[in-house]
Amino acid sequence: MVHDKIAVVDFGGQYAHLIATKIRRLRVLAEIRQPEDPTELFEQYKGIVLSGSPSLSAFGEDSAYNKSIYDLEAPILGFCFGHQEIAKHYGGEVVHGGREWGAADLHLTRDHPLFAGLSRREPVWMSHFDSVAAVGPDFDELGYTALGAGGEGHRYAAIGSDRHRRYGFQFHPEVDDTVHGEAMLANFIFNICGCTRSWTMEHYLDEQRERLKSQIGDRSVFLLASGGVDSTVAAKLLGLVLGSERLHLLHIDNGLMRKDESRQVLETLSALGLDRHLNFVDASDAFLGALDGVVEPERKRRIIGDTFIEVFEREARRLGASDHLLAQGTIYPDTIETGGTKRADTIKTHHNRVPIVQEMLAAGRVVEPLVDLYKVEVRELGEQLGVPADLIWRHPFPGPGLGVRLLCSTGHEDRDHIDDIEPPLAAVSRQFGVCAQALPIRSVGVKADLRSYEHPVLLSGAFDWNRLQETAGAIYREVPHINRCIWWAGAVRPQHVRPVAATVTRARLDLLREADALVMDGLRRHGLYRDIWQCPTVLVPAACDDRGQELVIIRPIRSERGMTATAAQLPEPLVAELTAGLAALDGISGVAIDLTSKPPGTIEWE
Ligand code: XMP
């Protein structure tokens, strides 16, 4: 059957693949294309979408890509960088400045088929440094944004030319936080490009089964099974294609698991009938030994990823399975956030994308049945494959486990940017009437598709969620070098928060395991476990008083795919319970709640 198709040109934005996924969910086949692909390749498509980009600025300099796509008849819609490129190509102007992170309101200036069925004011998601300052002669402004409290806005947040059939959105309709983004994509695909629906998830599954059969041939595979949703669904799918005889599972206890987790994982995998060749190894000594004394987040990630492969190879030799292919439950965000597509920036190196795995991939020794999917699709597939609901709805847990939730420090106060931060931060604090202090530590975040490694701001005062969120929004806009805001959950605000020297140790991991178990238990008792997408508990080696050396951060978030996220508000009684419970643990000097959306923060702190 011939499907109507849309091309998504991947300029390396974090969301290029997400655009294709969202279009496929509308039952129209979308394919990723490279910017330098020849024009003839684009002729088969009924429409073209230009993605955002981390490295290319549409400002001034000429961005290199195949511009003859603009000679084609097919409608073109650009997002973020793509939007700026369209504006520029047709005589508009792009300027540095007008940056926006996170939620904004799009005000429509007139009716247009792209916004059919939507209201005049739509919540949209922004992540950009540059903006369109003027459009060319055939273009109109279709919408502008007005930002939160200050009321200042941006013109040309949506532009279009019906004559050329070219359109641009400064915002990202593909992310879940643009509430009616899917309707906007649907309007483009159906109302403007005239596509008909014909693509389904079953097609995708059939294709994957065929692909796996031809990749694996008559070999066996060895799957690293963490017990999480991804590797379990991958195991079920591989079991279906290979049968149980050729599927070997290895669960590694890396010492970075949750409390009692390895035991539960082995029970679950057995209950799923995946116990024909189920192997277990306690490799915690190897992991903790390799991490000994290491502080820098990316180095920790690399070490964890490399150690997984070392342990895997050792165990494969021991079990006589050295020629087996390595199977991993890698999903799409693992690739994109590691900078795994041509132009994407490395936000953080996922454990299944360290260089050694990249080499094995290049040598054709890795099988990754879920590599095109996002979490929400993996769950859908898992349901189809009969994986029980309680496993499917487990919170995602990162491969490096608690290793990325246990911050380390040399004890040195990181004050390089504090002088630039303090004056604008003081201005925002005055405006919102809150106490705000920048902490002399850093965590990982993502801004305009680029990695950021910047400071958190600690807010204190009443737990007034909307007010705290407004304040946080103003801080990201007005204050440089900040990618997170957290709220102090204790009674007395700390005068000074000071990092203390700490690395990965069993004792700290045990403390984090207790803290994490306490938080998970609280979510379950309050019936919130399913409602909250993920809730990392993070240990930061920082003394807030003289009682202890560790600051605990609770990071409840809502998300669908993990590519974007909003902080989830916990009810006050639960916050009070958790704060009291955590503060009672030995060595804890304070408790804070993370208020940060993604962007500008990432979900994990490292
Ligand atoms: P971030 O922190 O990048 O996380 O916003 C997005 C989602 O990915 C998970 N995550 C990982 N998952 N290996 C994984 O399998 C990793 O190295 C890794 N790092 C982050 C994170 O928990 C969140 O769900």
List keywords for this structure.
single chain; 606 residues; alpha/beta; seven-stranded mixed sheet; 17 helices; 25 strands; globular
Radius of gyration: 24 Å
What percentage of amino acids are in beta strands? 15-25%
The average pLDDT value, as a whole number, equals: 92
Spatial separation of the terminal alpha carbons: 46 Å
Major sheet characteristics: 9 strands, mixed
Bound molecules: xanthosine-5'-monophosphate
**Care to count the β-strands?**
25
Spatial strand sequence of the major β-sheet? 2-1-3-4-9-8-7-5-6
Shape type: globular
User: What is the helix fraction of residues, given as a range?
Assistant: 25-40%
Instruction: Supply the helix-strand structural class.
Output: alpha/beta
Detail the poorly predicted runs.
none
Our count of helices gives 17
What is shown here, in short?
By secondary structure, this protein is of the alpha/beta class. The chain contains 17 helices and 25 strands.
What does this structure look like?
This protein is an alpha/beta fold. 32% of the residues lie in helices and 23% in strands. It contains 17 helices and 25 strands. A nine-stranded mixed beta sheet has the order 2-1-3-4-9-8-7-5-6, with helices on both faces. Strands 15, 16, 17, 18, 20, 22 and 25 form a seven-stranded mixed beta sheet that branches. The chain has a five-stranded parallel beta sheet with strand order 12-11-10-13-14, with helices on both faces. Helix 8 (284-291) runs antiparallel to helix 9 (297-318), helix 14 (418-432) runs antiparallel to helix 15 (465-478) and helix 16 runs antiparallel to helix 17 (572-583). The mean pLDDT is 92. The site of xanthosine-5'-monophosphate has 17 residues, from helix 10.
